[in-house]
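Problem 12. The chain below contains 361 residues. Write out its predicted structure in token notation.
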Amino acid sequence: MRVIYLVEWDAYSNSGVLQKVLSQFRTWKQLGADGLLLIISPEPGSARERLFDTPGVEVVTYRALRGGANKVSKMFALRAAAEICRRFHPDLIYYRQSSWTPGIVSLLSEAPCRVMEVNSNDLDEIYQYGSLKAKYHLATRKFLLDAVDGFVGVGREISEIYRGYGKPVECIGNGFDMSRIAPRKPPANDRPQLVFVGSAGQAWHGVDKLVAVGGLFSEMDFHIVGANVESAPANFVVHGFLDRAKLAELYSIIDCGFGSLALHRNNMSEASPLKSREYLAYGIPVIGAYCDSDVDGCDFFLRLANTEQGVADAVESVRDFIYRWKGKEIDMEVVRAKIDMSVKEKQRLDFFARVLAASVG
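Solution.
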């Protein structure tokens, strides 16, 4: 099976999504797939270089512009990408969910079978980006839904939504390549050290909820990475963006990590956040306000209520969880069975094979 993994993402910014995509692709190759990773990326700034050197990866760039001009710019990149597809002659294209751009359906048609990865309920999220973008998305999303033969949802909640389109759906939570993480011993901190890794402007991350209760944990330190924080308590350390090496250094002193805390703001209740996977791969217990079908019920995951007051109402439960795990190791064999990339990607490739057989048979 010859597979193209098609992604519209910045290939020059070290994001969790980029690392996930690269790890997935490398795992496919290790599992024997004949694959090509094709990234449609904004042009890099003058001081930026591509962050990886992985065989089998092609990057097609476009000039990032404002408004509709950006779609026109990307359209020409998609034409170049279609030519790469024709040369590779794939059996299947795996497309990471994005919005419609002129030329994307033609590109997808270069393979006899197409599967789309859906990471969110796009109909619930579009309005936060403005009414014009919402109208555009509502008018064009059907083109992509009609163009694919199946879906992979990152959670049961999202997967059930897409079953309504009458095509095969597989639920596969986010995984993590645990082979690239060196085992660590739990730190021996006098003060518990906690971490929240997020992004600026993502209301569903809920970092504001930690700020609201942070003063109640004055004997602990909160490390905030990537997210915007205003008027942080004295026990907060705001790091801004950290690269992989700096983040690994920080993880070495962390007792517990926080995942998403406000998915209710996106009308969602289930997730498998990449950062929570990363925490677990480093042996860090996780606190989050969402259903995670991979680790729900595990002793190293504390699930809070997914409500506006969910964190504030659980202060004592959070404190008890942190002290229960402080200085202790979680069972990494259980973690590996739950989230390791090799387990997830074998399931994904098996699903590709079934959809391909059905679509061409």
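Discussion. The chain has a mean pLDDT of 92. Students who got a different answer should revisit the alignment rule from Section 12.3.
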